[in-house]
Design a protein that fits this description.
By secondary structure, the chain is mostly helical. It has one domain. Helix content is 87%, strand content 0%. It has 4 helices and no strands. The longest helix has 24 residues. 14% of the residues are buried.
Length: 92
């Protein structure tokens, strides 16, 4: 449990590289979560919305620390904004 908490803290602070934050924790995480989420109905939808909402700031913060090509940091931030708007649309 401590390892999960440490990973979530690292994610939240942007301490995990952008490629891992976006593709592994957000994208693959969403694909993996959709299977059980679909099976449990409304609670699963809340799980998906919660994880998606949580991942907006880690993506943004990781993009701030990204030292590669600036276009990738910009695209990640655009994706984070679109993700946030999608979450707001789901909630409203």
């Amino acid at each position: 449990m401590d390892k999960i908490k440490a990973t979530l803290t690292q994610l939240w602070n942007g301490g995990i590289p952008l490629v891992q934050t976006f593709w592994l924790y957000y994208f693959v995480g969403m694909l993996v979560m959709r299977i059980p989420a679909n099976a449990i109905g409304a609670a699963g939808a809340l799980l998906i919305i919660g994880w998606t909402g949580y991942m907006v700031l880690p993506i943004w913060r990781s993009a701030d620390k990204y030292t590669g090509k600036p276009i990738f940091a910009l695209l990640a931030k655009i994706a984070a904004v679109l993700i946030a708007l999608g979450v707001l649309g789901s909630v409203l």
